[in-house]
Design goal:
- By secondary structure, the protein is mainly α.
- The protein has 2 domains: 91 residues, Alpha-helical ferredoxin (Fumarate Reductase Iron-sulfur Protein, Chain B, domain 2, Orthogonal Bundle), CATH 1.10.1060.10; 281 residues, no CATH class.
- The chain contains 18 helices and 2 strands.
- It starts with 8 loop residues before the first helix and ends with a helix.
Length: 385
């Protein structure tokens, strides 16, 4: 069976941030030092070789880029300075663009100008919409968001946005599944898919493979950002938008913009404080690391890395300001900061979740799960041979 070669692959990967892969002379140190590399799934050297040979199809079918968490050991030990860890990061950007059928992810990853303009346009449109559709007579004596933008209208917009983003993310994830599984997709019995489904949940929640890397601090930071964001997303998109709670002796709907301040030890408030701490600590650690270039994962930073961290931190900080302004009952300050908050939060959701860094939270556990499915299938085939 012939193998198609893309002679321009290295040049194409350079658009996604590839710099030093040509320095690699395949000594194998990177694969030997990696605690996550196995006989069945060796990396990073194999992926570097694919890139050098122009084997794009091999890369598209590979699970290894998602099995790497970029702890940086391979880059630190590389005798040629080829930075194999960053090459694996480039592979994830490249694959994200290939999974995305809209082509938007590619533009987002290959043009900083496009990225900045896209974020700015979405943010400005959000700000204009909130200004145009605000109530004529908002409550200026007390901070009451529902007097400015009625909760039902915000909820409808939130649900529409969630549905659109879910469609894009799931359709792109399905393309990821088809690339990774190839012809095995329909050959593997449904029983194996079902019995291994727990792997998908475990790896999404715990990122436990990252904990096997030597730099456990990277795992902690990664886990804090992921769980912090997921907690905040669930509080807003699931429990606040369309959920219910017991108020007095009756069940009432939980509104997206609830003007009642929860008691300090209310579960919603405790989870909110955890999300705030986790995101702020994780993003601050990562931003300082990138500024100082303190370790291998932070030495070669892509524009999307900066945008992701900055938007996430600004969303969190403005959320904190809203919280304090509501506690102090500063009406105008609450309304103004709320608009600014959504001008950061919505571009992050619209652009990052289906097309960029946040999509990795879906692709990585899915690919780890599919890798386990493949292993079980091959074990079954050997047992029946």
């Amino acid at each position: 069976m012939s193998t198609k070669v893309n002679p321009n692959l290295m040049r194409e990967l350079e658009e996604f941030g590839l710099k030093d892969a040509n320095k690699c002379f395949h000594c194998g140190n990177c694969t030997a030092i990696c605690p996550l590399s196995t006989e069945e799934n060796p990396f990073p050297r194999k992926l570097v070789k694919y890139a050098q040979l122009g084997l794009e199809e091999k890369i598209l079918q590979s699970a290894e880029p998602w099995l790497c968490y970029y702890c940086g050991d391979c880059s630190d030990r590389c005798p040629r300075g080829a930075d194999p860890g960053e090459t694996m990061m480039v592979m994830r950007r490249f694959l994200t663009s290939k999974y995305d059928w809209t082509g938007f992810a590619r533009r987002f990853y290959t043009s900083e100008t496009f990225e900045i303009i896209a974020v700015a346009i979405v943010g400005i449109l959000v700000g204009l919409a909130l200004w145009i559709f605000h109530a004529d007579n908002p409550n200026m004596e007390h901070a009451a968001l529902n007097s400015v933008w009625p909760a039902p209208a915000i909820e409808i917009g939130d649900l529409i946005m969630a549905a659109i983003l879910t469609f894009f993310l799931l359709s792109n994830t399905w393309r990821c599944v088809k690339f990774v599984m190839g012809d095995l997709l329909k050959k593997v019995p449904l029983e194996i898919y079902a019995t291994e489904a727990k792997e998908l949940i475990i790896h999404f929640i715990t990122q436990k493979r990252f904990g096997e890397c030597t730099d456990r601090m990277q795992w902690i930071v990664h886990l804090l950002i992921m769980t912090g964001y997921s907690t905040a997303f669930l509080l807003v998109a699931v429990f606040l938008a369309g959920g219910i709670e017991l108020v007095g002796l009756a069940w009432e709907p939980i509104r997206f913009q609830r003007d009642v301040i929860y008691p300090f030890f209310h579960p919603m408030r405790i989870f909110g404080y955890y999300a705030t701490f986790a995101i702020l600590y994780g993003t601050t650690y990562a931003l300082i690391g990138r500024i100082k270039k303190s370790k291998a994962p932070y030495k070669s930073t892509h524009g999307t890395d900066w945008m992701f961290l900055i938007l996430l931190q600004l969303t969190t900080l403005t959320g904190i300001f809203i919280h304090f302004c509501r506690l102090l009952d500063w009406a105008m300050a609450t309304y103004v900061i709320y608009v600014i908050h959504l001008m950061f939060a919505i571009p992050m959701l619209v652009l990052e979740v289906p097309f960029s860094k946040w999509a990795h939270l879906a692709y990585r556990p899915v690919v780890i799960y599919l890798t386990r499915v493949k292993e079980k299938y091959y074990e079954m085939q050997k047992g029946t041979a």
